[in-house]
Amino acid sequence: MIDVRMVGIHDLRGIGKTTIAKIVYNKIVDNFEGSCFLENVREHSRTIDGTIQLQEKNLSKILQNQHLKVNNVPEGINVKKERLHNKRVLLILDDVDKSKQIENLLGKHDWLVPGSRVIITTRDEHLLIALGKVCTTYKVKKLDNHEAFELFSQYAFHKVNPDEEYSELTNQALYYAKSLPLSLTIIGSNLCGRTKPEWESALLQYEKYPKWRNLSNT
Asked: pTM of the predicted model, to two decimals?
């Protein structure tokens, strides 16, 4: 029997944790009976109302019930325990910084059906360590040249290899992205469908303003 598995992705801001989680989510989501991607958990959990809204979104997405409401945080936890015991689910908790957030949105991992998957992104490795053996942790690293090339091409051209006429411009883009998954995704998406002159103009802006990455979140 395949157990419930939790995976924690950690590192500093801007490395691309959310991007990686989204790629994994999109690749495997069709294998589950219910799924939900909760972004910016840290920000939305600052208030009780924000936490309740996250619980409602989580339950509504997984149960496919657009009108599901809960009155308070403990009720939201109990509803999850009662209603999700028969579904194999995929849950992403993005940008978590407190264990209480995991408790409020996940409950206990063994409440889920075997085969379920939970992915947590965080800047705090210790938060993942505190989960113990139930959570496998990964530290995000820069991609090697081949991996960076493929990831960028997927977003810029929607295929593994770029058009030959864009090869030199692609190399420039890879240089500015510094092999960071988030940077590769942002630049690739921004350049997708543009003409060569538009690429040249955009890349010139990246060269002039190297701090553009600070606009990214995780």
From this structure: 0.71
